[in-house]
Amino acid sequence: MSLFPSDSEPAAAPPTAPAGLLQHLNPEQYAAVTLPPRHVLVLAGAGSGKTRVLTTRIAWLIQTGQVGPGGVMAVTFTNKAAKEMLTRLSAMLPIPVRGMWIGTFHGLCNRFLRAHWKLAGLPQSFQILDSQDQLSAVKRVIKAMNLDEERFVPKQVTWFIAGCKEDGQRPKDVEVRDEHTRKLIEVYQAYEDQCQREGVVDFGELMLRTYELMRDNAALREHYNRRFRHILVDEFQDTNKLQYAWLKMFAGPESAVMAVGDDDQSIYAFRGAQVGNMADFEREFRVDQVIKLERNYRSFGNILDAANALISHNTRRLGKNLHTEAGPGEPVRVYESNSDFAEAQWLIEEAQQLHRDGVARSETAVLYRSNAQSRVLESALFNAGIPYRVYGGLRFFERAEIKHALAYLRLIENPNDDTSFLRVVNFPTRGIGARTIEQLQDAARASGRSLHQSVGAVAGKGGANLAAFVALVDAMREATQGLTLREIIEHVIEASGLADFYRTEKEGRERLENLDELVNAAEAFVTQEGFGKDAVALPVDEQAGAIAEGSPPAVAAVDLAPDAETGEIVSPLAAFLTHAALEAGDNQAQAGQDALQLMTVHAAKGLEFDVVFITGLEEGLFPHENSLSDADGLEEERRLMYVAITRARKRLYLSHSQTRMLHGQTRYNVKSRFFDELPESALKWITPRHQGFGSGFERDYRAAWQRGSGLGGIVGAGRQPDTPPAWAAPKATTSEGQALRAGQGVFHNKFGEGVILTIEGSGADARAQINFGRHGMKWLALSVAKLTPVES
DNA sequence: TAACGATCTCTTTTT
DNA sequence: GAGATCGTTA
Question: Which end of chain A is more exposed for a tag (fewer CB within 10 A), N or C?
Answer without folding.
Answer: C
